[in-house]
Amino acid sequence: MSKKPEPWDLQSSTHRGDYHIFRVREDVRVSPVTGEALKFSILETNDWINVLPLTTDGQVILIRQWRHGRNELTWEIPGGLIDPGEEPVAAAGRELREETGYAAGRIQYAGAVTPNPAFITNRCHACIAYDCEIDGEPNFDIGEDIETCLMSLDKVLDMIKSGEIHHALVVAAIYLCTLQMKR
Question: What is the mean pLDDT of the chain?
């Protein structure tokens, strides 16, 4: 059996920049195995939320928007940064309303994942929004242009299987939510 890994001692931490949705820092940590000091680039960012919204008749509210990193339109569920001091369930309701114009009758927390603990500090939370109904017009952020579509959950799962829905955090959130709904 192999040896249990040990924590690495922090020797220094230097902030390198603030880029609106994330901050970059450089940590120097000492390997407990070799004693060597190594540099690590760390992205600090707020926690994120993704919400699987279901209408009163059980349809999933999907969104499609342009993603600059991939230079393409992507199918997703509503989501975004959680504001400082905001709880994930509250953020789920806010993002749902802002991105789709729908409001939920009830929101249930489904869990969280760490997007990439190798160099990102945050968690991505997932919620299920039940009994969603139109409550007004969306209120997009300045960089958003979003299409809203209703689809069955089976169709959404087929879109994941075919690769049409490929945003890893959206896929993880839908997985967490469907696990929660089976309980």
Answer: 96
Task: Report the largest interatomic distance among the alpha carbons of the chain, rounded to a whole angstrom.
Answer: 60
For residue 31, give both structure tokens. 């390997």
Q: What is the dihedral of CA 158, 170, 107, 81, to 10 degrees?
A: -160
Q: Which long-range contacts (CB under 8 A, 24 or more apart) does 56-59 make?
A: 56/105, 56/131, 56/132, 56/133, 58/152, 58/153, 59/150, 59/151, 59/152
Q: What pTM was estimated for this model as a whole?
A: 0.94
CA gap 81, 91 in Å, rounded? 8
Q: Is 11 helix (H, G, I), strand (E, B) or coil?
A: strand
pLDDT digits (tens, 9 = 90+) for 98-112: 999 999 999 999 999
The residue to which tokens 């979003």 are assigned: 146
Yes or no: say if 99 and 63 are a contact pair by the CB < 8 Å rule: yes
Helix (H) or strand (E) holding 133: strand 124-134
